[in-house]
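Structure ticket #2291
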Amino acid sequence: MLMSLYSDLWRAYLSVAKGRKIDIQTLGSTLDVIKSIEYSSRPGNIFLIFDSGRLDDKKLLKNVSIRRHRLSGEDLSNSDFFIIDVKTDGLISKRGGLRLNSFIWIVCHLPSFAFGALKGHSLAAGLVLVYRNVFRKHHISKVDLFTSNSRLTELIRIAAITSGLQVTEYLHGICSDVFADYLRLTHRVAVEGQLSYVNMVPRLPQPDVIRRRLLWTGGLEVTFQNEAQWLPYSVAASSDVLIVGGHIPDGDYLGSVFFKNDLSLIDFCLSNGLKVIYSPHPSNFNDARFSVPSDVAIGRFKDYVNSAKVLVGHFSTALFVASLLGKKILLFKDSFSLIPEYFFYELCDRNELRFEEGKLLSILEGDLPVEGRPNSNPRSIGYSLRPDWD
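Resolution: structure written out below.
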C-alpha cells in the first residue's frame, strides 16, 4: 500500500509541476486510509535542504532552524545537522549536493531501491524508500525545506511525511492554485501538527492549506525573509520606475511576451523622460544585458527597490513583498492569468494593481498616491527568524 502511496503522490506532483489540475477528491479518498502514525515531535537530527543559488549562508540557515524549533519548546543542542544543497551546475552536482548524495545513497541501499522501484512501478518509489532508510540510519526527526518545487526535494518531502517526520517549509514566494492542491494531498497523508510553514514576510498571501499552518508566536507571525537586505534610499540609485523582470522555469523569458512588455515599458519611459532601471531575474541577469537598450541601467533588485518611486512587473515575489513593505507596485495585464485568485482577495484589488501608461504618469505627477499599503515595517507585526536582522 505504501508503494502505491508514493506513486500516487509522485504522479500528482508531476501533474501540478506542468500546471495541470489534479482530482484531489479521488486521490484523497485513497490517501485517507494511510496516516503517518509514527509521528511525534521527538528529538533527533535535522535534515536541512537549501539552494545555494538563492542563499549560501549555512551558518545562518542552521541558526534559523534552531530558532524555529526553539519556538516549539524543542532543544536542538544535541542534534546534528545534515545540510544538503540542491543547486547543480549543469549536469554536475556540487560536492555534498542532493543529486550526488542521492546517487551515493542508492548505491548504499541498492536492494531497497530495487524493491521500491519494482513494487511501486517507478524509480521515484525506489528513491523514496532510499530516503526513508537514510532518515532511519541517521536518526532524522525533522526536515527543514529552505527550497522546494524540485523533483528530488519533493521526493524528500514525500519520504519525510510517510516516515512520520516533522516538516517545515520556509516559503520563498506565493503558491499557485494547482500546487496548493498537491499540498492538500500531502496533508491528507500527514497528521495534525506534522507539517508547518514559515512566510517570507507577515501577511504575504498564501492559499488556505498553507495559511492555516503558518507559524505564530506571541501574537506575531513568524517570518524568514530569504533574500539579502534591501539597500536604503540613495540619490545615485533613484529612479522613477524600476521594472522587475521575471522567470519562466521551463521556457525562455527573454523570448516571451512578458519580456516584450518589459521592453515596451522601457521605450515608454525613455520617450517620456522618465528615469528607468531594469532589474532582471537573477537567472536572466547576464543575458538581459544584451537585450536591453544600452542607455538603461541594469541592477540588482535589492540595490534599487527602496530608491524607486514605482515598481512594475509580472509574477514576482519580490514585487509582492515590496507592496507589503510600503512600495507602490503595478502589474502588467499578462500576469493576471498567472496569479492565483486568493492573492487579489487578500492583498489588493485587481484594478488598483493593473499597469496602465496613464496611471503610471498620474502617480509620478502626484495625482495618485505613490505609497503602498500601510504597516510597511515587517518587524512591527512579525517575528523574524533571521538573527542577523534583529
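Closing remark: The chain is about 40% helix and 15% strand.
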